[in-house]
Amino acid sequence: MTDAYKSLEARFRRINVLSDIGGMLHWDMAAMMPNGGANARSEQLATLDVMANELVNAPDMGDLIEAAGGENLDAWQKANLAEMKRNWVHGTAVPSDLVEKMSLAATSCEVAWRGARADNDFAGLLPKLQTVLDLSIEAGKAKAEALGTSVYDALLDQYDPMMRSDRIDSLFAELEAFLPSFTAEVIERQKSEQAPTRPTGPFPVSVQNKVGLDLMKAVGFDFDHGRLDISHHPFCGGIPDDVRITTRYDENDFTSAIMGVLHETGHAMYERGLPGAWRNQPVGKARGMTMHESQSLLVEMQASRSEEFLTYAGLVFKAAFGGDDAAWNAGNLHRLYTRVEPGLIRVDADEVTYPAHVILRYRLERALIEGDMKLADLPGAWNEMMGKLLGITPPDDKDGCMQDIHWPSGAWGYFPTYTLGAMAAAQIFAAAKKAKPEIPAALARGDFSPLMGWLGENIHGKASSKSTDEILIEATGQPLGVAAFKAHMENRYGG
Amino acid sequence: MTDAYKSLEARFRRINVLSDIGGMLHWDMAAMMPNGGANARSEQLATLDVMANELVNAPDMGDLIEAAGGENLDAWQKANLAEMKRNWVHGTAVPSDLVEKMSLAATSCEVAWRGARADNDFAGLLPKLQTVLDLSIEAGKAKAEALGTSVYDALLDQYDPMMRSDRIDSLFAELEAFLPSFTAEVIERQKSEQAPTRPTGPFPVSVQNKVGLDLMKAVGFDFDHGRLDISHHPFCGGIPDDVRITTRYDENDFTSAIMGVLHETGHAMYERGLPGAWRNQPVGKARGMTMHESQSLLVEMQASRSEEFLTYAGLVFKAAFGGDDAAWNAGNLHRLYTRVEPGLIRVDADEVTYPAHVILRYRLERALIEGDMKLADLPGAWNEMMGKLLGITPPDDKDGCMQDIHWPSGAWGYFPTYTLGAMAAAQIFAAAKKAKPEIPAALARGDFSPLMGWLGENIHGKASSKSTDEILIEATGQPLGVAAFKAHMENRYGG
């Protein structure tokens, strides 16, 4: 190991600790902070961003990275160095003052979004959202030059390293070749089948919370290293040793909160499973948001909506909520959780119509980033595309183009990872079941450990030591593709 | 304004934002964090400390401070520069690696203390506590050299700028000249008077919490800029724009939680009242812990235990807890809250016996810091001195020398500020009532606004623009002294 490499490890350790601190403060902002703390919090987050950026941009960083390579590094150290270089290229592309401006604008817009969404006031949000968009484009341009990509691809690369929009275009085209007609068939078929019985509420928040905690335990969440709280928009935050997940409750419908908890628990298990020996080094981080979403969707969509797990979940629900037997049996829950119905809200969408929500956002954000559309035209374009893709028109912007926190918080280029993640989830779950045939029977007992054991070894523990495709090829035999997702769709929803 | 001064303001802004971030993480550690997050949190807090220390210790800082002075600064800027210099002298005295070691050791010891205290395991805590003590002495020695004081005074100066132990010795001697015989007289007299009726529980945590929130509102706490939560040891944390106070609940006794809330609300009001124009500058910070404790004790001891306020509080308690009329009338509550009885626990002590708890800690920590006593001998020395000063011997270390978080967290030299604060509180409250005779009648209506208005102008808003004594002289006509405290004791407890 060279001195240069050792010195880089020390620097990136500090950079990553600053980013971890930002993770805790972001969680607090969403789950705990009173509104009056927003300005001070913006300055705190901006200061952390700027200081981390200053460290990444240190004048001698490029020389150190150059000097650190060589044959004396092992595979993980080499991968760590490559990730350092990736961080450095992204970091040096954007000047410090722009980093600070973006951080301040995003925090302030995120707070404004909470109020504006509640008031259905897109015009009120517009100025702050425009600032966030303009600054994101400015940063994207700078990164595009450094990476040799388009502006949109440079933003995408922040969330899914090495993913490019031409690949997304072709994957999404494959999806679009079968999803619309498949969706129509499924809806038609479900009309003629037994309708699910919807359990009747109210479902007290305290009981939903307890069910959420019980199911987190079943998945394997370690409460000595994490918490469950409430926020407007469910998310998984914090750090690997202290994962903070959140959900939101509706006393008339327990489905959304519980599936939200399972989704975020999937994220949390990935974070917890990252290799402890590489904490606070770039190579020890999750591989990217496609892989991250694959882990949340694997738990939420693949495992938790399987008839096997629903057998177990039904017993938990019945014990917690009481009520009618018919509602809680696995067959009924399976019909309930696989009901396909186009809706307004992405996070509430079933897995068949979900990709349409993502394709819509992917197209609109590309148009906005590439300057093909004005932000003021977003509500109209959104509503028109919802009509085309899902056959419904949002009655307002609250449940239309203002429903997600991503754009207000500056996360342009993030949305595609949800559907890429869904594809990866199907591919990984199929491989896991092939390698460990006992997985479904264990899920029926509420036991995720065979699945989590396999994921720990084949996905979580590899962190960023390889690319998404390399990890997928080792784990599943194939790079990211549509086939397994399509097979899963046909298996679960086909005639 | 010189360029040097402007540059110093920018630097100290960043230093203070880092310290604010630490404040949020400390709150989280005590109120939210699962135990498994402790190691990562230690590293986060240490990184913040080290980075702030590096900024304070920048090689050109001394020259900048030298160059920044002059006639073109206004009074607040001059005071700000003086505070910057104070921070710089404290900061440069201690080498970075010692700062980091101290921060790591304190965080780790604080976590160990929680478990060890529950297990009554002083021997188990000893190694970590010894490390914290040794590092504190090492830092104290370095600071003593820079400040030209004794080691203990250098530690004290961190919490109460410009206070020295010879002054404490003389103030405490004045206290000791009257307190022991006075305490004995009060106890004797109370035996012959009507005993207070103790309201009978249980008092559900949720109801105590609601009462706490109601009384915080009465004091003037702004819930758009703060929260109330639970922790092992009640404290006031966070930042002026987002004050996080905590308490702990006992379902069999509501007194401790509620008075804890009022105490911390006093701290919170001081933080909230600091001048917004000087946020994140040294001069905009609270003057020190003596002044801080004066504000918490003014609310808790002076105002909230007055017969006037207890008239209002009785109505709140009765509406919340129900039960017997006799327990909730102001006369009974006043007897209850002014009952003098030597006890084991400092935070539960009445105001007459409280100074003895502080004098004990002050003597023991001086002996430990000055090397006159071994840490292993602390439990024995503690129990012996408890016998001498208060006539009781702790049955265990849990409720003896392990009851406070201060020493495990490295806060040696902090304890005297509680009793110095109690003296200042009496002095300030007397002056406030003289200036605004309507204060007692307003308190009887649950209205703290006349008192808080006066405090805002005469104490809170002055922040660190003047010394503790200068602020006290302007507000009360006198430097810090024992007279008003003695008068208060005689007035409330005398025959």
TrEMBL record, chains A, B:
Annotated transmembrane regions: none
Main EC class the enzyme belongs to: hydrolase
GO molecular function: metal ion binding; metallocarboxypeptidase activity
Protein's UniProt keywords contain Iron: no
Cofactor binding note: Binds 1 zinc ion per subunit.
Keywords: Carboxypeptidase, Hydrolase, Metal-binding, Metalloprotease, Protease, Zinc
A Pfam family this chain is assigned to: Peptidase_M32
Superkingdom assignment: Bacteria
Catalytic residues of the enzyme: 264
Binding site for Zn(2+): 263, 267, 293
EC number, as in UniProt: 3.4.17.19
Biological processes per GO annotation: proteolysis
Reaction catalysed by this enzyme: Release of a C-terminal amino acid with broad specificity, except for -Pro
Cofactor(s), names only, from the UniProt record: Zn(2+)
Reported function: Broad specificity carboxypetidase that releases amino acids sequentially from the C-terminus, including neutral, aromatic, polar and basic residues.
Family, per entry: Belongs to the peptidase M32 family.
Record protein name field: Metal-dependent carboxypeptidase
